[in-house]
Specification:
The protein is mainly α and 127 residues long. The protein has helices spanning 7-23, 28-34, 39-55, 64-74, 79-96, 100-126. It is 76% helix and 0% strand.
Amino acid sequence: MKDLETRADIELLVNTFYGKIQKDETIGYFFNDVAQVDWNIHLPKMYQFWETLLFGKVSYKGNPMSAHFPVNAKVAIEKHHFQHWLQLWTETVEELFAGEIAEMAVYKARNISQLMAHKMAVAKKLE
């Protein structure tokens, strides 16, 4: 298997991952029902987000944390949800790619999931 190398690789990874998310019984409802994600808008943002994180090409502008607070206010996004998200991400990366950048994609996702789980828990306590 090859490593993540191009924008097309990012798109394949993100599309495959969110294809799983949309059907997932544990966290799919956050995207489909609670947030009612418009995938035509969300997916290009995620391409830019991961392209920025993994390749250093600054194409993403936004605050991913702030996008999650309104969802968390409706239905708590708990630690186990983020752990499941990370599990799906890791599986998807490992199904499609191998190498240094692929490992970095998993590492960065782990950090993101831990930080977001913490921030969402704090936000719930402050409500």
